[in-house]
Automatic annotation (TrEMBL):
It comes from the Bacteria. PROSITE patterns: THIOREDOXIN_2. Keywords: Signal. Residues 14-156, 159-306 form the Thioredoxin domain. CDD domains: SoxW. Pfam families: Thioredoxin_2 (PF13098). InterPro entries: SoxW, Thioredoxin-like_fold, Thioredoxin-like_sf, Thioredoxin_domain. The keyword Signal applies. Residues 1-24 form the signal peptide. This is Thioredoxin-related protein. It comes from Marichromatium gracile.
Amino acid sequence: MPIRPRLVLLALALLLTAAGDVLSAPPEHPSWFKQSFLDLAEDVAEATAADRRLMLYFYQDGCPYCALLLRVNLADPEIARLAHERFEVIALNIWGDREVVGLDGQTTTEKGLAAALGVQFTPTLLLLDEAGAVVLRINGYQPPARLAAALAYVAERREQFGERFVDFHARRGGPPASGELHHETGFLEPPLRLADNRDRSPRPLVVLFEQRTCRGCDRLHDDLLRRPALGAALSAFDVALVDIDAETPLQTPDGAARAARDWAEALGILYTPTLVFFDAAGREVFRAEGELRAFHLHGALDYVATGAYRWQPSFQRYLAARRERIEALGVEVELME
């Protein structure tokens, strides 16, 4: 049932207050995380022998979203049970120097593995099957209901039944949302012809993949994009809104004619909102699919708008430098507002 946006914002405000409380001290990894020799093929085999699956958890020190995962998500009884009983969890520092033997048998370091796997956000979770293949990848922080669905999907081996995660998650349901799609003034009007747009416009394109049943989408539009700084950052882009559940026909940036749902599936869109960024030639250059706060969302927009992704392949290093520049001006950066 649709709910009023003010109630959504109130609930989110309460969550953010709780988040501020849990972030007051650095969190410890649970004692049941696996103490591994970091030979990942052996870790997969050991997890399989125990009728579990392997989870690789990429984090970094001082990461507020990692703290939320450990202090808020793992306090959820279903998440704690699934993670503890159905997975073997290995924590890997994206800047760490511990030696790791990858699934390909090559020796590298934690940071080398993170770079090779394209880890751009922390936390990032890779949930692996018995052959070491990625069943589900979670880039960035996801709220408890969505993380619980992801763990259940992999623990129950639903991919072996041909069920898509987006359908599994929809079947489970989630927190109440407004039931609306937020098409804002200035967004590209349907029917979307994104290849034509790329031919005409020199500006980068961001496509917002959303759903009517998405509380995070409500927050993106009712809160974050209402903030003047973020609204100004978004104005550097052409913006398209795509409903991942719709059969609406559209033209993709590469000129293909597809239904919205099919295009989202082809791009591997599993979570909403997901922001996918395209350059002037229609090539995907970046995406953000976790639950972002203002600083990180603004950073993602600027990362693409300034072209920084061309010379700085690490979004985390870009964010760290951006934070240093802001704080050098005497402005305090609030990471979780």
